[in-house]
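tool_call predict_complex ligand=NAP
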Amino acid sequence: MANFELSETELPSPKDGELLVKSLFISVDPYMRSRMSDAKSYVPSFEVGKPMDGGVVAEVIESRHPDFAAGDAVLAHLQWQEIQTVNAQQVNKLDKSVPLSYYLGILGMPGLTAYFGMNEIGKPVADETVVVSGAGGAVGMVVCQIARIKGCRVVAISGSDDKNAYLKDVLKVDKVINYNTEKNMKAAIARSCPDGVDVYYDNVGGEISDAVFSHINKFARIILCGQISLYNNTEIPVGPRPQPLMVKKSALMQGFIVSNYSARFGEGIHQLAQWLGEGKLTSSETIVQGFETLPETFISLFHGKNTGKLLVNVSD
Ligand SMILES: NC(=O)c1ccc[n+]([C@@H]2O[C@H](COP(=O)([O-])OP(=O)(O)OC[C@H]3O[C@@H](n4cnc5c(N)ncnc54)[C@H](OP(=O)(O)O)[C@@H]3O)[C@@H](O)[C@H]2O)c1
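tool_result ok
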Protein backbone atom coordinates (compact mmCIF):
# COMPACT_ATOMS: atom_id res chain seq x y z
CA MET A 1 0.00 0.00 0.00
CA ALA A 2 2.91 2.33 0.71
CA ASN A 3 3.68 2.20 -3.01
CA PHE A 4 0.37 3.84 -3.96
CA GLU A 5 -0.58 7.51 -3.76
CA LEU A 6 -3.96 9.22 -4.15
CA SER A 7 -3.65 12.65 -5.79
CA GLU A 8 -5.88 15.38 -7.23
CA THR A 9 -5.47 17.18 -10.55
CA GLU A 10 -7.32 19.92 -12.48
CA LEU A 11 -10.59 18.83 -14.11
CA PRO A 12 -9.72 18.42 -17.84
CA SER A 13 -11.81 19.83 -20.74
CA PRO A 14 -12.40 17.66 -23.82
CA LYS A 15 -11.09 18.89 -27.19
CA ASP A 16 -12.74 18.16 -30.57
CA GLY A 17 -12.98 14.37 -31.03
CA GLU A 18 -12.69 13.74 -27.29
CA LEU A 19 -15.06 12.74 -24.50
CA LEU A 20 -15.08 13.70 -20.84
CA VAL A 21 -15.86 10.46 -19.00
CA LYS A 22 -16.60 9.49 -15.40
CA SER A 23 -15.42 6.03 -14.31
CA LEU A 24 -18.13 3.63 -13.09
CA PHE A 25 -16.33 0.27 -12.74
CA ILE A 26 -12.55 -0.18 -12.70
CA SER A 27 -11.11 -3.65 -13.31
CA VAL A 28 -8.22 -5.03 -11.26
CA ASP A 29 -6.39 -7.87 -13.00
CA PRO A 30 -3.45 -10.17 -12.21
CA TYR A 31 -1.50 -9.09 -15.34
CA MET A 32 -1.09 -5.66 -13.72
CA ARG A 33 1.38 -7.22 -11.29
CA SER A 34 3.67 -8.13 -14.21
CA ARG A 35 3.56 -4.49 -15.33
CA MET A 36 5.13 -3.44 -12.02
CA SER A 37 8.60 -4.41 -13.17
CA ASP A 38 11.10 -3.40 -15.83
CA ALA A 39 10.98 -6.85 -17.45
CA LYS A 40 9.95 -6.73 -21.12
CA SER A 41 6.46 -8.11 -21.66
CA TYR A 42 3.53 -7.98 -24.06
CA VAL A 43 2.27 -4.84 -22.27
CA PRO A 44 4.46 -1.88 -21.25
CA SER A 45 5.51 -1.46 -17.61
CA PHE A 46 3.70 1.05 -15.39
CA GLU A 47 5.72 4.23 -14.86
CA VAL A 48 6.50 5.30 -11.30
CA GLY A 49 4.65 8.55 -10.53
CA LYS A 50 2.03 8.04 -13.27
CA PRO A 51 -1.52 6.67 -12.71
CA MET A 52 -2.20 2.95 -13.14
CA ASP A 53 -4.36 2.08 -16.14
CA GLY A 54 -6.55 -0.78 -17.28
CA GLY A 55 -10.08 -1.77 -18.29
CA VAL A 56 -12.74 0.75 -17.20
CA VAL A 57 -16.47 1.10 -17.83
CA ALA A 58 -17.31 4.80 -17.81
CA GLU A 59 -20.15 7.21 -18.47
CA VAL A 60 -19.84 10.07 -20.95
CA ILE A 61 -20.36 13.41 -19.18
CA GLU A 62 -19.55 15.66 -22.14
CA SER A 63 -19.04 14.70 -25.79
CA ARG A 64 -17.08 16.54 -28.48
CA HIS A 65 -17.67 13.70 -30.97
CA PRO A 66 -20.86 13.29 -33.06
CA ASP A 67 -21.23 9.55 -32.34
CA PHE A 68 -21.42 9.97 -28.55
CA ALA A 69 -23.72 11.84 -26.18
CA ALA A 70 -23.77 12.55 -22.46
CA GLY A 71 -25.15 9.51 -20.65
CA ASP A 72 -23.62 6.93 -23.02
CA ALA A 73 -21.76 4.05 -21.35
CA VAL A 74 -18.36 3.17 -22.80
CA LEU A 75 -15.61 0.58 -22.32
CA ALA A 76 -12.02 1.74 -22.66
CA HIS A 77 -8.47 1.27 -21.50
CA LEU A 78 -8.25 4.24 -19.12
CA GLN A 79 -6.25 5.55 -16.22
CA TRP A 80 -7.29 4.89 -12.65
CA GLN A 81 -9.00 8.28 -12.39
CA GLU A 82 -12.51 9.30 -11.43
CA ILE A 83 -12.83 11.72 -14.36
CA GLN A 84 -10.66 12.06 -17.49
CA THR A 85 -10.73 12.88 -21.18
CA VAL A 86 -10.34 10.21 -23.85
CA ASN A 87 -10.16 10.13 -27.65
CA ALA A 88 -13.58 8.88 -28.83
CA GLN A 89 -11.89 6.48 -31.26
CA GLN A 90 -10.41 4.59 -28.33
CA VAL A 91 -13.70 3.65 -26.66
CA ASN A 92 -16.51 1.21 -27.40
CA LYS A 93 -20.11 2.26 -26.79
CA LEU A 94 -21.94 -0.27 -24.60
CA ASP A 95 -25.41 -1.74 -24.75
CA LYS A 96 -26.96 -0.71 -21.43
CA SER A 97 -29.47 -3.58 -21.41
CA VAL A 98 -26.70 -5.77 -19.93
CA PRO A 99 -25.29 -5.06 -16.43
CA LEU A 100 -22.35 -2.77 -17.22
CA SER A 101 -19.94 -4.67 -14.96
CA TYR A 102 -20.26 -7.72 -17.27
CA TYR A 103 -18.18 -5.88 -19.91
CA LEU A 104 -15.15 -6.21 -17.62
CA GLY A 105 -15.91 -9.82 -16.74
CA ILE A 106 -17.98 -12.48 -18.43
CA LEU A 107 -18.52 -10.41 -21.62
CA GLY A 108 -15.10 -8.77 -21.44
CA MET A 109 -11.43 -9.67 -21.37
CA PRO A 110 -11.68 -12.56 -18.84
CA GLY A 111 -14.67 -14.17 -20.62
CA LEU A 112 -12.89 -13.92 -23.96
CA THR A 113 -9.73 -15.40 -22.42
CA ALA A 114 -11.71 -18.42 -21.27
CA TYR A 115 -13.52 -18.74 -24.61
CA PHE A 116 -10.50 -18.56 -26.92
CA GLY A 117 -8.18 -20.54 -24.67
CA MET A 118 -10.67 -23.39 -24.46
CA ASN A 119 -11.87 -23.36 -28.06
CA GLU A 120 -8.59 -22.73 -29.84
CA ILE A 121 -6.13 -24.67 -27.66
CA GLY A 122 -8.13 -26.90 -25.31
CA LYS A 123 -10.59 -28.11 -27.96
CA PRO A 124 -12.59 -30.07 -25.36
CA VAL A 125 -14.64 -33.04 -26.52
CA ALA A 126 -17.66 -34.51 -24.68
CA ASP A 127 -16.80 -36.97 -21.89
CA GLU A 128 -13.18 -35.79 -21.64
CA THR A 129 -11.81 -34.74 -18.24
CA VAL A 130 -11.00 -31.02 -17.97
CA VAL A 131 -9.02 -29.74 -14.98
CA VAL A 132 -9.12 -26.01 -14.24
CA SER A 133 -6.81 -24.22 -11.79
CA GLY A 134 -7.75 -20.78 -10.48
CA ALA A 135 -11.26 -22.12 -11.03
CA GLY A 136 -12.96 -19.72 -8.61
CA GLY A 137 -11.77 -16.58 -10.41
CA ALA A 138 -12.91 -14.50 -13.39
CA VAL A 139 -11.39 -16.63 -16.14
CA GLY A 140 -11.62 -19.97 -14.32
CA MET A 141 -15.34 -19.80 -13.65
CA VAL A 142 -16.09 -19.22 -17.32
CA VAL A 143 -13.71 -22.03 -18.32
CA CYS A 144 -15.51 -24.46 -15.99
CA GLN A 145 -18.87 -23.54 -17.50
CA ILE A 146 -17.66 -23.81 -21.10
CA ALA A 147 -16.27 -27.26 -20.29
CA ARG A 148 -19.70 -28.24 -18.89
CA ILE A 149 -21.44 -26.84 -22.00
CA LYS A 150 -19.14 -29.04 -24.11
CA GLY A 151 -20.22 -32.10 -22.09
CA CYS A 152 -16.92 -32.64 -20.28
CA ARG A 153 -16.24 -33.91 -16.78
CA VAL A 154 -14.89 -30.89 -14.87
CA VAL A 155 -12.45 -30.90 -11.96
CA ALA A 156 -12.03 -27.44 -10.39
CA ILE A 157 -9.09 -26.38 -8.20
CA SER A 158 -9.36 -23.30 -5.98
CA GLY A 159 -8.02 -22.10 -2.64
CA SER A 160 -11.21 -21.96 -0.61
CA ASP A 161 -14.10 -24.18 0.46
CA ASP A 162 -16.59 -21.36 -0.22
CA LYS A 163 -15.44 -21.01 -3.83
CA ASN A 164 -15.51 -24.78 -4.22
CA ALA A 165 -19.05 -24.96 -2.82
CA TYR A 166 -20.14 -22.35 -5.41
CA LEU A 167 -18.35 -24.23 -8.20
CA LYS A 168 -20.03 -27.49 -7.24
CA ASP A 169 -23.51 -26.31 -6.23
CA VAL A 170 -24.10 -23.48 -8.70
CA LEU A 171 -21.78 -24.14 -11.64
CA LYS A 172 -22.22 -27.93 -11.36
CA VAL A 173 -18.60 -28.99 -11.75
CA ASP A 174 -18.03 -32.68 -11.00
CA LYS A 175 -15.17 -32.53 -8.48
CA VAL A 176 -13.46 -29.80 -6.49
CA ILE A 177 -10.04 -29.63 -4.83
CA ASN A 178 -8.93 -27.02 -2.27
CA TYR A 179 -5.18 -26.67 -2.81
CA ASN A 180 -4.78 -24.89 0.54
CA THR A 181 -6.14 -27.77 2.61
CA GLU A 182 -5.24 -30.71 0.37
CA LYS A 183 -2.01 -32.27 1.68
CA ASN A 184 -1.16 -34.33 -1.40
CA MET A 185 -2.17 -32.64 -4.66
CA LYS A 186 -0.93 -35.50 -6.86
CA ALA A 187 -3.13 -37.95 -4.93
CA ALA A 188 -6.07 -35.53 -5.09
CA ILE A 189 -5.76 -35.25 -8.89
CA ALA A 190 -5.49 -39.05 -9.21
CA ARG A 191 -8.60 -39.47 -7.04
CA SER A 192 -10.61 -36.81 -8.91
CA CYS A 193 -9.50 -37.85 -12.40
CA PRO A 194 -9.72 -41.67 -12.49
CA ASP A 195 -9.57 -41.58 -16.31
CA GLY A 196 -6.64 -39.13 -16.39
CA VAL A 197 -6.56 -35.49 -17.58
CA ASP A 198 -7.38 -34.63 -21.20
CA VAL A 199 -7.42 -30.83 -20.95
CA TYR A 200 -5.71 -28.72 -18.30
CA TYR A 201 -6.55 -24.99 -18.22
CA ASP A 202 -3.67 -23.52 -16.22
CA ASN A 203 -4.26 -20.18 -14.51
CA VAL A 204 -1.79 -20.59 -11.64
CA GLY A 205 1.33 -22.64 -12.51
CA GLY A 206 3.78 -23.79 -9.83
CA GLU A 207 3.26 -26.92 -7.76
CA ILE A 208 -0.48 -27.15 -8.50
CA SER A 209 0.32 -27.55 -12.19
CA ASP A 210 3.17 -29.97 -11.49
CA ALA A 211 0.61 -32.20 -9.79
CA VAL A 212 -1.81 -32.03 -12.73
CA PHE A 213 0.91 -32.72 -15.34
CA SER A 214 1.71 -36.05 -13.72
CA HIS A 215 -1.76 -37.37 -14.69
CA ILE A 216 -2.13 -36.22 -18.31
CA ASN A 217 -3.48 -38.60 -20.92
CA LYS A 218 -2.18 -39.28 -24.40
CA PHE A 219 -2.90 -36.25 -26.66
CA ALA A 220 -3.65 -34.02 -23.64
CA ARG A 221 -3.90 -30.26 -24.26
CA ILE A 222 -2.43 -27.90 -21.66
CA ILE A 223 -3.55 -24.29 -21.99
CA LEU A 224 -1.06 -21.90 -20.39
CA CYS A 225 -3.24 -18.92 -19.58
CA GLY A 226 -1.55 -17.53 -16.45
CA GLN A 227 0.93 -18.37 -13.70
CA ILE A 228 -0.36 -16.26 -10.82
CA SER A 229 1.41 -18.36 -8.17
CA LEU A 230 4.70 -17.03 -9.56
CA TYR A 231 3.88 -13.33 -10.17
CA ASN A 232 5.32 -12.15 -6.85
CA ASN A 233 8.51 -14.24 -7.26
CA THR A 234 11.69 -12.43 -8.18
CA GLU A 235 13.14 -15.71 -9.49
CA ILE A 236 11.22 -18.47 -11.25
CA PRO A 237 11.69 -21.73 -9.32
CA VAL A 238 12.88 -24.80 -11.22
CA GLY A 239 10.22 -27.50 -11.01
CA PRO A 240 9.85 -30.86 -12.66
CA ARG A 241 10.84 -30.55 -16.31
CA PRO A 242 7.75 -31.82 -18.14
CA GLN A 243 9.25 -32.24 -21.63
CA PRO A 244 9.91 -36.03 -21.43
CA LEU A 245 6.32 -36.59 -20.30
CA MET A 246 5.01 -34.33 -23.06
CA VAL A 247 6.88 -36.45 -25.61
CA LYS A 248 5.66 -39.71 -24.11
CA LYS A 249 2.05 -38.48 -24.06
CA SER A 250 2.15 -36.66 -27.44
CA ALA A 251 0.76 -33.74 -25.44
CA LEU A 252 0.34 -30.10 -26.47
CA MET A 253 1.27 -27.24 -24.16
CA GLN A 254 0.55 -23.79 -25.53
CA GLY A 255 0.66 -20.31 -24.03
CA PHE A 256 -1.48 -17.51 -25.38
CA ILE A 257 -2.49 -13.90 -24.85
CA VAL A 258 -6.16 -13.09 -25.36
CA SER A 259 -5.27 -10.19 -27.69
CA ASN A 260 -3.96 -12.80 -30.18
CA TYR A 261 -7.65 -13.23 -31.00
CA SER A 262 -8.66 -9.54 -31.02
CA ALA A 263 -9.89 -9.78 -34.62
CA ARG A 264 -12.43 -12.38 -33.41
CA PHE A 265 -13.62 -10.71 -30.18
CA GLY A 266 -17.04 -10.03 -31.77
CA GLU A 267 -17.56 -13.76 -32.31
CA GLY A 268 -16.52 -14.52 -28.72
CA ILE A 269 -18.80 -11.89 -27.18
CA HIS A 270 -21.69 -13.05 -29.35
CA GLN A 271 -21.31 -16.67 -28.20
CA LEU A 272 -20.82 -15.78 -24.52
CA ALA A 273 -23.87 -13.46 -24.61
CA GLN A 274 -25.93 -16.19 -26.25
CA TRP A 275 -24.97 -18.73 -23.57
CA LEU A 276 -25.77 -16.12 -20.88
CA GLY A 277 -29.19 -15.51 -22.44
CA GLU A 278 -29.88 -19.25 -22.61
CA GLY A 279 -28.98 -19.64 -18.93
CA LYS A 280 -25.99 -21.86 -19.76
CA LEU A 281 -23.53 -19.32 -18.31
CA THR A 282 -23.73 -17.58 -14.94
CA SER A 283 -21.79 -14.43 -14.08
CA SER A 284 -20.10 -14.21 -10.71
CA GLU A 285 -18.53 -10.97 -9.46
CA THR A 286 -16.97 -9.54 -6.33
CA ILE A 287 -17.59 -5.79 -6.40
CA VAL A 288 -15.79 -3.56 -3.90
CA GLN A 289 -17.04 0.00 -3.32
CA GLY A 290 -14.94 3.14 -3.56
CA PHE A 291 -12.12 4.58 -5.66
CA GLU A 292 -9.79 4.73 -2.65
CA THR A 293 -10.03 0.93 -2.22
CA LEU A 294 -8.34 0.27 -5.61
CA PRO A 295 -4.82 -0.55 -4.32
CA GLU A 296 -5.93 -2.93 -1.57
CA THR A 297 -8.51 -4.52 -3.87
CA PHE A 298 -5.85 -5.14 -6.51
CA ILE A 299 -3.49 -6.69 -3.92
CA SER A 300 -6.32 -8.92 -2.61
CA LEU A 301 -6.24 -10.82 -5.95
CA PHE A 302 -3.06 -12.45 -4.68
CA HIS A 303 -4.76 -13.57 -1.47
CA GLY A 304 -7.74 -15.16 -3.18
CA LYS A 305 -10.32 -12.75 -1.73
CA ASN A 306 -12.47 -12.69 -4.88
CA THR A 307 -15.05 -15.13 -6.15
CA GLY A 308 -15.44 -14.56 -9.89
CA LYS A 309 -14.48 -11.23 -11.44
CA LEU A 310 -13.02 -8.63 -9.04
CA LEU A 311 -14.08 -5.03 -9.73
CA VAL A 312 -14.20 -1.68 -7.98
CA ASN A 313 -17.40 0.35 -8.23
CA VAL A 314 -16.27 3.98 -8.23
CA SER A 315 -19.57 5.55 -9.32
CA ASP A 316 -20.47 7.30 -6.02
N1 LIG B 1 -3.32 -15.13 -21.20
C1 LIG B 1 -4.16 -14.11 -21.10
O1 LIG B 1 -4.44 -13.38 -22.07
C2 LIG B 1 -4.82 -13.85 -19.79
C3 LIG B 1 -5.93 -12.98 -19.69
C4 LIG B 1 -6.54 -12.83 -18.43
C5 LIG B 1 -6.03 -13.48 -17.32
N2 LIG B 1 -4.94 -14.28 -17.46
C6 LIG B 1 -4.40 -15.02 -16.33
O2 LIG B 1 -5.41 -15.90 -15.88
C7 LIG B 1 -5.27 -16.11 -14.48
C8 LIG B 1 -6.60 -15.79 -13.80
O3 LIG B 1 -6.88 -14.41 -13.99
P1 LIG B 1 -8.25 -13.80 -13.44
O4 LIG B 1 -8.38 -12.44 -13.97
O5 LIG B 1 -9.34 -14.78 -13.68
O6 LIG B 1 -7.95 -13.69 -11.87
P2 LIG B 1 -8.81 -14.35 -10.73
O7 LIG B 1 -8.67 -15.83 -10.89
O8 LIG B 1 -10.15 -13.75 -10.72
O9 LIG B 1 -8.10 -13.90 -9.40
C9 LIG B 1 -6.90 -14.41 -9.02
C10 LIG B 1 -7.08 -15.72 -8.21
O10 LIG B 1 -5.86 -16.44 -8.29
C11 LIG B 1 -5.76 -17.28 -7.17
N3 LIG B 1 -4.39 -17.21 -6.63
C12 LIG B 1 -3.76 -16.13 -6.14
N4 LIG B 1 -2.53 -16.46 -5.72
C13 LIG B 1 -2.41 -17.80 -5.96
C14 LIG B 1 -1.36 -18.75 -5.74
N5 LIG B 1 -0.19 -18.39 -5.19
N6 LIG B 1 -1.58 -20.04 -6.08
C15 LIG B 1 -2.74 -20.42 -6.64
N7 LIG B 1 -3.77 -19.57 -6.87
C16 LIG B 1 -3.59 -18.28 -6.54
C17 LIG B 1 -6.74 -16.75 -6.11
O11 LIG B 1 -7.78 -17.72 -5.97
P3 LIG B 1 -7.66 -18.95 -4.92
O12 LIG B 1 -8.61 -18.64 -3.82
O13 LIG B 1 -8.06 -20.12 -5.73
O14 LIG B 1 -6.23 -18.97 -4.44
C18 LIG B 1 -7.28 -15.47 -6.72
O15 LIG B 1 -8.62 -15.23 -6.38
C19 LIG B 1 -4.11 -15.22 -14.03
O16 LIG B 1 -2.95 -16.01 -13.99
C20 LIG B 1 -4.02 -14.19 -15.12
O17 LIG B 1 -2.74 -13.63 -15.21
C21 LIG B 1 -4.33 -14.48 -18.67
